[in-house]
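Hi team,

As requested, here is the filled-out complex form for the S-adenosylmethionine run. I kept the field names the same as last time so the parser does not choke. Let me know if anything looks off before we queue the next batch.

— J.
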Amino acid sequence: MSLRMNDTPPQCKPNRPQTAADSHVGYSKSQATPFDILEFAHATIADHLFPGDLSVDATAGNGHDTLFLSRQVGTDGLVLAFDVQETALASTRKRLAKAGCPDNVRLIHQGHESLALHLDALKNENPDVPPLRAVMFNLGYLPGSDKSLTTKPETSLSALRQALDALAPGGICSLMLYTGHAGGREEAQAVLEHVEQLDIKAFRCLRSEVCNKPGSPVISLLVWKR
Ligand SMILES: C[S@@+](CC[C@H](N)C(=O)[O-])C[C@H]1O[C@@H](n2cnc3c(N)ncnc32)[C@H](O)[C@@H]1O
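And here is what came back:
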């Protein structure tokens, strides 16, 4: 079959990156750590999230994940980004502005445990709100800030339950669990215990871990809703 001049060429993979750093698609190259566990989460979410979708960043922090989600859902989509620290939201706001992001992010200065309330309010505001396709949790403390202000098992679990409940079928929830700070190991354990007992008929959960990092493991969970 030959292509005429105005035909769209068949979809194909982009060229292989020339260097390891070129393969790092999310963060800016200056921060690049090729073969990064968060990059794998981003790449998987990117396969499930499309322009016009609704997504949630449950822990906005410095805004890397919010920016990633904003780029995935585009001008017609929406990202709800939660954080309890104003400094985190300011940092996220700055990152989004610097990247020239479209006006598709709502920064919410409240805990992610209020997720269901915000989703209900959104539906009341607009009954045609798109289905929730992705939720990201990057637990722990705000890098470069007070390490004692961390996410907590009770509120993280409450938000996780609400997120899994609200996700559309085929949607995905990712969790990055850090175990090196005070309380991190206990929180990771609580989240793992919750995810491990999810019904396989309703969810498929994948766990990955940097297994040669000295010290405290970083664990990534991807929960896909059937
Ligand atoms: C590891 S950082 C998030 C990193 C962020 N996703 C990024 O891309 O830069 C964890 C964040 O969770 C926030 N946090 C703590 N408790 C929270 C809660 N209950 N709801 C929402 N965010 C919370 C902290 O303030 C901190 O900014």
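Two things worth flagging: Confidence is low (pLDDT under 50) at residues 1-10, 20-31. The domain at 34-225 is CATH 3.40.50.150 (Rossmann fold).

Thanks,
J.
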